[in-house]
Amino acid sequence: MITVQAALSGLLLGGLYALMAAGVSVTWGVLRVINLALFGMMLISAYLTFAVATAWGVDPLVTLLVTVPAMFVLGGLVQLTFDALKITELNSLLLSFGLLIVIVQAVSNIWSADFQRMAADVNPYATEAVHIGRFVFPAPTLLAFGVAILVIGGAHLLLRRTFAGRAVRAFAEDRTVAATFGIDHRKVGVLLAAVAGAIAAVAGMLFSLGNALTPATAFEWFGTVFAVVILGGVGQVAGTLAAGLLVGLLSGVVSVTLSPAASPFVLFSAIILALLLRPQGLFAVRTVVR
Amino acid sequence: MKGLLGIVAGVVGLATLSLYRETIGFPMFYLVLLTTMLFWVTQATSWNILSGFSGYFSFGQAAYVGIGAYSTAVLYGRHGVSFYLTVLVGAGLCAVLALAMGTIAFRLRSLRGEIFALLTLAVPFILAALARINGDIDGGQGIIVPIPEFPAGIGLFQDYLYLLTLVVAGGAVAVAYAIYHSRFGWALRAVHDAEDVAEGLGVATFRYKLLALTASAVLGGIGGSLFALQIGFVAVDSIFHLTIPLFVIVMSVLGGRTHWFGPVVGVALVVLLQDRLTASGLGEWQLIALGTILVLLVIAAPEGMYARIRSRPLVALAAAVVVTAVLWFVRPEPLDALLGGLIAATAVAMWPRRKRAVPVTAPVPAQTDAKPPEVRVERPPPVELGAVVVEVAHVARYFGGVRALEDVSLTIREGEIVGLVGPNGSGKTTLVSMLSGTLRPTRGTIRVAGRDLAGLPPHKVAHVGISRTYQIPKPFASMTVRDNVAMALMFGRSPRPLAVARRDATEPLETVGLGRLADAYPASLNLHQRQLLEIARALAADPKVLLLDEALAGLNPAEIDNAVEVIRRVHEGGVSIVIVEHLLRVVNQLATRIVVLDRGTCLADDEPAKVLADPRVVSAYLGRRAHARDR
User: Fold this and answer.
1) How far is CA B310 from CA A42, A250, B345, in A?
2) What is the number of domains present in chain A?
3) Smallest Cα distance from B243 to chain A, Å
4) Do residue A260 and residue B133 have CB atoms under 8 angstroms apart?
5) How distant is the Cα of B566 from the closest Cα of chain A, in angstroms?
6) Do B298 and A91 touch (CB under 8 A)?
7) Which of B125, B144, B225, B559 could, after both became Cys, cross-link B528 (CB 3.0–4.6 A)?
8) Which of B295, B399, B471 to mutate to test the interface with A (most CBs of A within 10 A)?
């Protein structure tokens, strides 16, 4: 009984993991940059949600009006910098690591390193829960799950069905060829990175609904997010969602059946197995690797 | 040797500061600062051995510090085990962790560097979670590490700690120095520049990377054990923190990560900067400053300070002395003045210099202006065919559902030049990759000199006697032309030390006509010269069979004729050659036999005249619709 509840809660939580990983995965797979600054953008958005909702007394969802445009611009700017410097994959990791450290320390200087949580009167979701039979689902998790499905599903459809999406996929497969067919790689790249920033803003907001915040949270996301990215297959949007759900489910069940301490290990073993057996991602469509 | 003496002299010099502290009136405060610096020297050097030398970035330095600190804190602090023993235990645990991480990450074929970086990013968090959740390890509250007993003559505990840290830091730098100047270091540099090529020339890359990772982990662990003494209280949050990888990366990148001494320079600057920021009450800006420095460095000076300082040492030194003196006069705080001096030296070193036009010292190949390109149509004299060296039997290779090769069999005898031709996508490169061991056949066997290649890693295949060139030349960019060739000699079939390899490199260089450019760097070579370098390097590996993968692509007619001459010379030296080429004129000129591949099968295998007259070959090249039969 408890196991089933844990499995379901984990599954729902997995939606948020997937959302956090989506931007990282797509920018890595398509733009060939590993952008750790996205973690910083999630952190800023989470804190902005907290600050704006607290100061103005608005519904946390409304803060998206501030955070989404801000992170859209920031994400695009970071990518413009990467482009201008013609940066390599490893150097992008290094550079964005520097950026992330700056962001985390700035957040810590502004909002202090202590745990912060939105007060109950501005965050109507924190205390709500949906009861289905004997199972309980907290509203923040449900909301996060719903938004994650919407955003990732939407992104998936955009990539599959629209011209811009096809351009992005062509770009991911071979940028030179895509460029000769008239796809302006810088425009596509900056737009994509900006969208990844916007998704990070949404993820940050959703995280702040159900969790207390501390600047170090950004680093704690690393393990889970990269597990999802690698399991889902770098650059695979739908794979990210599936992997997020799987990771959530696995952590949930292991925490209850074994112990919370075991969950990082199970996760880690899963990554290692996946890397060794299916390096292209668990859910990737088989492609020709030469 | 000079460097090692320098390290010893440095250690002795620094040791006297503590041993005669009272006599010379050396303030305790400076000793504490120096201890901190020495801790970071150990850590940054440890990081540099793997990440700087081989280019595999690690974010996991905190894992080694953590394991070392926790081993000491738990075993010595809680259970009273001898301190020195706990240092060994910590180092051993670090080695185990390194071997496990390396075995997983370095076995991967693609994205090795990126996956390794992410793996190292995750490991400290997992260790931290383990320590935090299992309260049994540290009693849940953190552990107080008592002061161990130390010889009476040393003075205070701070002196003892300082000397201990000094010895470890000196040892770490000495290890880095030894690695840098040995075969090991050259192997790591080759991995950094072009890993696949290094493996193909006979460098056991996996083993060297694993060794470097283990050395790095052990040094980091030992430093971590001392760190436990230094901070006196070990808790999860003070150890497994991202500031540790941030610091070591910034220090090494700032100082220069390709040189053994680079990290030391970076440490001096960064620690001093940290200390001064804290002293001015700007402690919370530390990380922002460091993060910014890292970003700027990646953008502006990825090669670091040390290389720049070395190229203008006197100017940098003068700037440092002058600024220090002036600042000391203005503000009588020596550390402020020193930091100002160091920053001035950095600025001078990093200042972009005007690029002056350099006169061309190496003229372009002579034949472009001398004799007109002469197309030799006559065939080389028929060679005596020797024993079979390569035996490919019923080999197939699939990529997912794509059949790149299907049931291909061929033999190559000593003294042959086999031209491997076929339309694009016919499987030529796949066959070359399988011969050189980078791809495994899905079915069938390949034997070289009687030895089955199944299960041999590429560097072993190189030792059996196969070497290859790459269609797009991949020289080791950080080494001179001579050293590129010397690499192949050092790690080839008959390994030899660097000095000998450098001397012996002259011969292959003369064979391809690059003798004049031996001391140039690959960046200054043109495409033709790079392709000749590829051939010289492959030749230096002393192969029985040389695989030339489109070694003439993109050359002009004069260069092609020159390359053909070179290939002839190589062949006359007794090497069998497989040449993959689109230019039938060249193949016809050179080959003693032509093998035609088409859609993964062997279409023809005979002497050139017969093959080129074969109607099936003509249609494969000139006429038939490619999609008539398939799909």
Assistant:
1) 43, 54, 12
2) 1
3) 9
4) yes
5) 31
6) yes
7) B559
8) B295
Helix (H, G, I), strand (E, B) or coil at A109: helix
Please state the domain extents for chain B: 26-241, 388-622
Find chain A residues with C-beta within 8 A of B117's C-beta: 34, 90, 93
Does A228 map to a domain? no
Query: Is A87 contained in some domain?
Result: yes
CB contact (8 A) between residue A222 and residue B121: yes
**What digits encode the pLDDT tens for the residues B63-110?**
999 999 999 999 998 888 999 999 999 999 999 999 998 888 887 766
Chain B contact present for A287, CB below 8 A: yes
* Residue B592 amino acid letter: T
Q: How far from B304 is each of A131, B17, B356, CA to CA, in Å? A: 59, 29, 22
B121 contacts on A by Cβ (under 8 Å):
222, 226
Distance from CA of A58 to the nearest CA of B (A): 31
Question: Is residue A74 a part of any domain in this protein?
Answer: yes
- Other C-beta atoms closer than 10 Å to the C-beta of B180 total 21
**A98 occurs within a structural domain:** yes
The pLDDT, as a whole number, for residue A288 is 37
pLDDT tens column, B517-575: 989 999 899 888 999 999 999 999 888 999 998 888 788 888 888 888 889 888 888 88
The 10 Å Cβ neighbour count of residue A279 is 17
Full-model pTM: 0.83
Selection from B213, B221, B176 nearest residue B191 by Cα: B213
On whether the B388-622 domain is CATH 3.40.50.300, my answer is: yes
- Containing structural domain, residue A40: 27-222
Whether chain B has a CB inside 8 Å of the CB on A218: the answer is: no
